[in-house]
Design a protein that fits this description.
alpha/beta, Spore Coat Polysaccharide Biosynthesis Protein SpsA, Chain A, 8 helices, 7 strands, 17% strand, globular
């Protein structure tokens, strides 16, 4: 079965930016985050906000739908079966109508006020010779416990050593990328953590922006430290294989 088909919108009505937010059981965080996104972007660009509910059981989708009168930019998509963060991001990107897509985590730890910063970096970098595919946010002060901070630093160091993607913090959920570029990437679970390397693999240029990080106000993390480490090691093997198997033509011409 192919990808889902969503409603067609006239070109005149297409937004410049689609904000994709994957959520799983974030009933207390979802609406405040939605309102922050709208406040950060209204008057700065045309946009839509797509919350992708990954089979929440706490009423996350329902509280979002109730908030739609205050946020007409909102669209809500829901997975019937829990499929993971990367699949939720991909669902949102496929449904997105914007040329550019921004992602951020649904737990409220990414600051929506940093999205205009990423847009400014994009505007500055877009006209350069090599096609820009991604502006990756990098957290400058992690508001997590010391175990998460240390494990993340070790994991990012190993990943940089193996993949050489020039990104110190691929776990940051705040990213801005071209929708078309994302859809050229090979899909696999957890690809959201390896987007810089995958963009470079496809010949795109990447840039970075320092962004803020906030403590979680409600709920608990959906990831454990040990299980994330084990999965990351397995993923690194697969990503290294993908990088070695990549072949790109120097140029393409239509005859």
């Amino acid at each position: 079965m192919g990808p889902p088909v969503f409603g067609v919108t006239s070109l005149a009505a297409l937004p410049e930016l689609s904000v994709v937010v994957p959520v799983k059981d974030e009933v207390d965080n979802a609406v405040p985050l939605l309102m922050e996104i709208c406040a950060a972007l209204r008057g700065k660009t045309t946009f839509e906000v797509l919350f992708v509910d990954d089979a929440s059981k706490d009423g996350t989708a329902e509280v979002l739908l109730a908030a739609r009168p205050q946020a007409p930019e909102l669209r809500v998509l829901k997975h019937r079966k829990n499929s993971g963060q990367s699949r939720a991001v991909r669902t949102g990107v496929i449904a997105a109508r914007g040329r550019l897509v921004a992602t951020l985590d649904g737990d409220g730890q990414n600051d929506p006020a940093d999205i205009p910063l990423l847009l400014a970096v994009w505007a500055r970098e877009e006209g350069k010779e090599q096609t820009l595919g991604l502006v990756a946010g990098q957290r400058i002060k992690r508001e997590d416990n010391w175990v998460k901070r240390v494990s993340s630093r070790v994991g990012n160091g190993v990943r940089q050593w193996l993949l050489k993607d020039g990104t110190r913090d691929t776990g940051c959920g705040l990213k801005l990328f071209a929708r078309d570029a994302f859809l050229t990437l090979p899909y696999f679970d957890h690809i959201h953590r390896f987007m810089p390397a995958m963009m470079l693999r496809e010949g795109y240029r990447i840039s970075h922006a320092d962004v803020r990080h906030r403590p979680r106000s409600h709920g608990t993390s959906k990831y454990g430290t040990l299980d994330r480490l084990l999965v990351s090691l397995s993923d690194l093997v697969g990503v290294r294989w993908l990088l070695r198997r990549s072949r790109r033509p120097e140029a393409i011409e239509e005859l």
